[in-house]
Amino acid sequence: MKIKVLIADDHQLFREGIANLLFSAENIEVIAQAQDGADAIEKAKHFKPDVILLDIAMPVMNGIEATKKLKLLMPSVKTITVSMHSDKQYVKGALEAGADGYLLKNCTYRQLTDAIQSVYDGKKYLSQDITELVINGYLSPTAPGEDEYNQLSEREKEIFMLFAEGISTREISEKLFISVKTVNTHKQNILEKLGLSSNADIVKYALKKGLIRLE
Description:
Strand order of the largest sheet: 2-1-3-4-5-6
Distance between the termini: 39 Å
Structural class: alpha/beta
CATH architecture of the largest domain: 3-Layer(aba) Sandwich
Shape: globular
Number of helices: 10
CATH class of the largest domain: Alpha Beta
Helix content: 40-55%
Number of domains: 2
Strand content: 5-15%
CATH superfamily of the largest domain: Response regulator
């Protein structure tokens, strides 16, 4: 039986390129493609893939947030982050979100198929350069303030992302069914924990961490 794969990337050319590459794999079948994280979740619910390949920087919902939600909704599904980013913060964010593998977009066909087979078999897969990055990250002391984003609660992260995407306080209040006062309280806590002072700072911080991107 073939491994059912869903590809999520906002660049259609890249999605179709990966799909065409995997067409020749005897044990892999691409069953669906998605253009962003939210789309990936909906397609995953419908098509029930075994493995999902996710980019990080996507509109609507980025790959890290999508990975978190997928792991909650469909714990058995395996996810592989396929990104152009090799920065420690991206790798750490993806792995902490529950990604089963991490590949760079310049990986080889063999690395891609090996990664899909490995995570399907219940193993973790990191390409060699990412493995070295992870090892060095564990061996090197963490710089002060480097993990400040992880100090936020899940609710604070949710509100942070909404502000980062340009959603107003009132709109957040209506979306999350909480009062404007509660939103402002969360916002103040977020600003204090991250050492920021305004909505503009939140956007800049999110861009720097790769949580959102400019269209």
